[in-house]
């Protein structure tokens, strides 16, 4: 049996095609993703889903869906977003389809009755993967836009917050990511020589620029749009970062910009570490399982900063699969849903 697990985010749609034997054992995992800004291109969702599957569509037996794209500002509220996305999915596939909700998988009829159960529930799909590695842990999933910090006890997630609003309050969601975060939301001052310089509250540079300049990511990893529409090479990233202090590469040297990037990176890790400390101390858990695009550069570093033991999902998944862990988890939940 082959099951396609999709994680439909506001910026990226991720895919994991998981092949199972008759007993539910995983035989193979194939992953991919596509940049799809749902705030302007939600009408392309069906096309994107089919393009991601490609020729595999003929071998797929069922489809599982998780989502966070209902938060996109093309929707007036989360219910509208969930219903629009789930309807587009149902119109795309003539296959068994179910959706990841806060209490497990839901069919389309259940979604229509209670759409808010699906809102930003993709972390529910990742929790079983972390629990498989350690029954008592905190998993950190840092993607392009956000970081989930979810406690697990006795093999079951025990997050205090259920909605994004609640999780922002409990430390279980930090709105910072590897690619799309405006650096002006991370720092209001940066060091420049012997001075501290206030930053411009403009959309000049994003964390992808920071991590590219520091060689934490490659140009291939920089999949989001650049703030100025220019290329995502190193020189342009340096220029975008220089603008954060209203400079340019005539006023600032590359080394000076790199030092600014290092400071921004440090502060981003500290933001995640602060929330991780809150969850760790509240739950009494000292083991962290990290995954996502920012697995090594943000999640693991935040855990180390707090003196916590850290492991990564690379123990059970390939580095590529770790980037789309919620999609993998969605496929696994779908397989169990079909066997129930």
Automatic annotation (TrEMBL):
UniProt superkingdom: Archaea
InterPro entries, per the entry: ATPase_NBD (IPR043129), Hydantoinase_A (IPR002821), MfnF (IPR002756)
GO molecular function: hydrolase activity
Domain called Hydantoinase A/oxoprolinase: residue spans: 63-335
Full protein name: H4MPT-linked C1 transfer pathway protein
